[in-house]
Amino acid sequence: MRLVRKIREMQKVSDQLKQEGKRIGFVPTMGYLHDGHLSLVRKVKDLCDVVVVSIFVNPTQFGPGENFKRYPRDEEGDKAKLEGEAVDLLFIPEASDMYPSGYQTYVDVTEVSKGLCGDFRPGHFRGVATVVAKLFNIVKPDVAIFGEKDYQQLLVIKRMVEDLNFDIKIIPGVLIREEDGMAMSSRNTYLSPEERKRALILYRSLLKGKDLFQSGERKASILLKAVRESIKSMDGVTLQYVEIRDVETLEKIKNVDKPAVIALAAIVGSVRLIDNIIIGRSE
Length: 283
Prior knowledge:
single chain, 37% helix
């Protein structure tokens, strides 16, 4: 695995790969990798000749009160995991190179970023869209993969790629869970053992909504009530939102007559967690 830290070097490597007719697959991450990330690497490897992974804890997507410096990091551990997956290139840029003095250009995806996490993390998706656009211009991938766990983020990126005519195919990666159902996340490391037990209510509540849908219920309000009441039954868990949105547009829906996502965010202890489940989509 080749490690690249400088932007111009990464661009030159990508240019050479393209001249050789290689198809580049890209997995952008913020590091502290878990099996959810690695599942994306495995998926893109089957589609491309060369796999590039980036690790960059992006300061512009951290909002007020969110501790950028506290975000977990483990560069050596991440390298070992990626070498184990036979990744070809690892790109780890410096923040001072990505956002040099005088930097002033940002990307806003105006509608898809509204609501859900957009209401609770002002400026977050502006930072996400900006850094991903920059990474696309640096790595120059043919294919990029984003996990469905961050569902709103996935649709923000898909919208940006379409609107700005990036010649890149965006592929979703399925949400990967622990054996007990907990959605894999780098933030899980912040949870105490007791908090982690409480956090399991999130997935159990989503399953209640899905089961109700599969039993024939189609009113979003009734499905949401079941999920909401289940979460509120657990002490130490503060629900920020639970909503049902169209799986393609994230528009609000009253009746689930086509594929939809039940998405939620909650605070467990001091940790903000997100999760979702797709309903009405053929597996």
